[in-house]
Write a structure and sequence with these properties.
single chain, 3-stranded antiparallel beta sheet, 5 helices
């Protein structure tokens, strides 16, 4: 996999992948709170990432309640790393404006 990834690029999914890239797994509520979305919005993002084969979802009972854990699969880590590299490459193409130069166009 190389380059820009439309599945990962959506802001919510990009944030999810960034969080998951720093850990083996993260709990649903932690991700939801970190990216400030509703349960339903997070569920939709996770479904798209799962359908792409990028994440694994694990449910486990803990203290009498069901908890959902999410982790990046190797394919997800590779796709995220490739997407970030492409974003960095694109950002490198942007020239900084020089003092004294105006916009002509």
């Amino acid at each position: 996999m190389s380059g820009f990834n439309a599945v990962i690029h959506a802001p919510g999914r990009l944030q999810i992948c960034a969080i998951l890239s720093a850990a083996d797994e993260a709990e649903f509520a932690m991700i939801r709170d970190a990216i400030a979305v509703s349960d339903s919005v997070l569920s939709k993002h996770l479904k798209q990432l799962e359908e792409a084969g990028y994440i694994a979802v694990r449910k486990q009972a803990h203290a009498g309640r069901q908890r959902t854990w999410i982790g990046l699969k190797p394919a997800g880590r590779a796709a995220f790393a490739s997407h970030v590299a492409e974003l960095q490459r694109l950002a490198g193409l942007v020239e900084s404006p020089r003092l004294g130069e105006g916009f002509s166009g």
